[in-house]
Amino acid sequence: MSNNAEPKDMDFKRAYEKGSGRGVMERFRKDPLTGLGITGWCGIVAYGIYSFKNSKKSAAYHVIETRLYAQAFVLGAISVGVGYRLVVNDLIPRWFPKKEVEA
Question: pTM for this structure?
């Protein structure tokens, strides 16, 4: 091992100094629909658990129905995010190109 080589534990120290929550918050700032999808999923699952005690359906049916709603919400959030990125990054620049101003 040469003198200039860093020990492997330096990567763990850098990750610890950066903080684990900062990466998640940066991701939510970069793409807010990720947070919307996770929050909606948690809300639907919490509602499913809450409504389980008042449900007259079988437990298996109730779990399947809750999972279906949660997956549909997340898939909808992903679809909206992809559609938004497509329009903003691809279609608008193609339809309305920026005109260069001559000085």
Answer: 0.59
